[in-house]
Amino acid sequence: MERNTAKDAWNKRYSASDYVWTDKANQFVETHLADLPAGQAIDLAAGEGRNAVWLASKGWRVTAVDFSTTGLEKAARLAADHGVTVDFIEADATAYQPPASVDLVVISYLQLDSDDRRLVLERAKTWLKPGGTLFIVAHDRSNVTGGYGGPSSPDVCYTVAETVECLDGLEINRAACAQRIVSTDSGDQIALDTLVIASEPASP
Ligand SMILES: C[S@@+](CC[C@H](N)C(=O)[O-])C[C@H]1O[C@@H](n2cnc3c(N)ncnc32)[C@H](O)[C@@H]1O
Prior knowledge:
By secondary structure, this protein is an alpha/beta fold. The chain has a single domain, classed as Vaccinia Virus protein VP39 (Rossmann fold, 3-Layer(aba) Sandwich), CATH 3.40.50.150. Helix content is about 30%, strand content about 30%. It has helices spanning about 5-15, 25-35, 50-55, 70-80, 115-125, 145, 160-165, and strands at about 40-45, 60-65, 85-90, 100-110, 130-140, 170-185, 185-200. The protein has a seven-stranded mixed beta sheet. α4 links the parallel β2 (about 60-65) and β3 (about 85-90). Bound molecules: S-adenosylmethionine.
């Protein structure tokens, strides 16, 4: 999808007053990042800010980046409601460059075609301080036919193997197709996510 069309589509989707993804952090973010010592973080494609705000409430200094003005406005309201500070930057994920290295980069359900996905992952892995963490969760390609919700286009979905391949030079701490329980009116459903957690080797 052309970039401005995609941006307009996300702005429209976020224009409803309710949160599209709820205001609660993603379950894997909560499970895997709860014990990480707080530092400087980037939430890339932060959307309505659920993960950025959760991180800020844990003491992280968070920069939330997204190309959706409407998403970032909602994220700013969520941060204010929780009494936390988050820095917001409206930018394209394929071009954003942070001014300094950080301790954590979170990329949660950023849907891009394969060339842009590879570009973003290869850029993001260079933003980490020694020992820093890159946390990626996304709709797995197997979800299109075997899981609940998510995009119908396999092109914007991830696989564990392709994701790990982009992270050459990092230590892979976790790489799995993970089952995410989604509560619906007709009972619990299972969504299939690519989950990869990697870290920049610590300085000797
Ligand atoms: C499925 S939402 C996920 C939002 C958030 N990370 C979360 O987990 O709640 C995908 C987000 O990616 C953003 N996005 C998509 N393409 C982008 C791009 N090229 N640059 C910046 N943001 C982008 C959209 O605006 C949207 O907020």
